[in-house]
């Protein structure tokens, strides 16, 4: 039995641990925080009297690695998927734009959905359709140096269809401004979501707290197979001996010998762990160049929901991107308080704002978009994730490292490594599974 030490108990580390423990490996997960889960976690919040997620997370039907992970954990029922892709947006004043894809094979479901979109003029639908028709060619020639904005211009997309469809999608999946982010990363998402089966494009919303969905179930799974999860125990350094990763040194001073070491931490944390000469390797010099992009989540308890029964709705041309009615998502009793989430992606413009300013912004945008349904906020909490994901600025994919590092026995996992995907749950879990497969493969050599 060989010991694998995994540093980081987010989804990348946990999915790797689950795969390895399932294959009979001895696994130790070191996680700096008391609860784990990383950027996909829940907090008990005393003023709301319930758990709140660090941010509303969505999945898509094309999240194949994540779905496999959830099946292994037995928690698939914790995510509710749409029957077919449907997206509702609202314009200032309350008019809705609705995309509703019918039960046709892909990509005809999207083509028909775009053609029959409600709340948007025929010229704009025609421009979206044109892009839809050439999409299969576009996804085969992704250009990481082209921005999404340049791609939309090249596709001749009108301002109205950009505002009501493309841009909200880009902010949501790439967590950055279409003006800077990479068209190739967007193509990677479009290919997986729209070029496979119809089910791939369905949205899935967790209806239980994120820690219950992922962290607790994964921890139980690993422990039941003899693995160890050490929460609240940060790694300080990785040593190398005879050209291989050797020991992991904890902040407490303890050292753990390992046959293989997996880092499943964000870029900065990885750089701090590396033995000296390795940090100068060109692979890690590139890692140093990666920047991050924030997400701000506003949680509030309100007297009534402005969404009119919808689970989620996007705001066209607003600094606030999406609203989620958690009471509808969780099928809460009408006697329970109404819980809303507002998600602001690529939130550079407001991440330094005070809670009072953000509350005021939310109130004024609710008034602007839902003038018929005035809302009173009873409880309010802001959760800022300043380094929510790496920035997918055009031209930066080349800096993301491979899962096999230049040091033998050291493997890199995390949503930001070279998975071919933007930094998402799926990218994190895919990286964890790929690292597990590489360790098992390398052990047979
Ligand atoms: C607010 C928000 C909303 C999001 N929404 C979506 C969404 O809707 N859909 C989607 O697909 N993705 C979404 N994401 C992205 C998704 O959450 C991440 O891609 C994913 O959680 C990353 O997992 P990870 O394991 O790679 O990294 P992390 O979750 O960052 O895990 C790294 C772990 O390493 C630990 N660590 C760091 N240093 C050390 C050390 N020295 N020793 C031990 N442990 C250490 C950290 O404490 C952390 O637990 C969102 C992210 C945020 C922040």
Characterise this structure.
By secondary structure, the protein is an alpha/beta fold. It folds into 3 domains: 3-46 and 208-290 and 393-443, 3-Layer(bba) Sandwich (FAD/NAD(P)-binding domain); 83-87 and 97-199, no CATH class; 292-390, Polyamine Oxidase, Chain A, domain 2. The chain is built from 14 helices and 20 strands. The protein has helices at residues 11-22, 64-73, 108-115, 122-140, 148-154, 159-174, 183-194, 210-224, 267-273, 276-279, 282-288, 326-329, 355-369, 425-443, and strands at residues 3-7, 26-31, 42-45, 50-53, 59-60, 79-81, 86-90, 96-100, 203-206, 228-231, 235-241, 244-250, 255-257, 260-263, 292-302, 312-315, 322-325, 338-344, 377-390, 410-412. β1, α1 (11-22) and β2 form a beta-alpha-beta unit. The chain is globular and about 65 Å long. It starts with a strand and ends with a helix. 49% of the residues are buried. Residues 7-13, 30-33, 36, 38-40, 54-55, 57-58, 234-235, 264-266, 269, 295, 297, 385, 388-389, 414-415, 423-426, 428 line the site of flavin-adenine dinucleotide.
Could you tell me the CATH topology label of the largest domain: FAD/NAD(P)-binding domain
Percent of residues in helices comes to 25-40%
Q: How far is it from the N-terminal to the C-terminal residue, by CA? A: 16 Å
Under the CATH scheme, the architecture of the largest domain is 3-Layer(bba) Sandwich
CATH class of the largest domain: Alpha Beta
Task: Write out the strand line-up for the largest beta sheet, numbering strands in chain order.
Answer: 8-7-16-17-18-15-19
Stretches where pLDDT is under 50 for at least 5 consecutive residues are: none
Beta-strand portion reads 15-25%
Q: What is the number of beta strands?
A: 20
Number of helices: 14
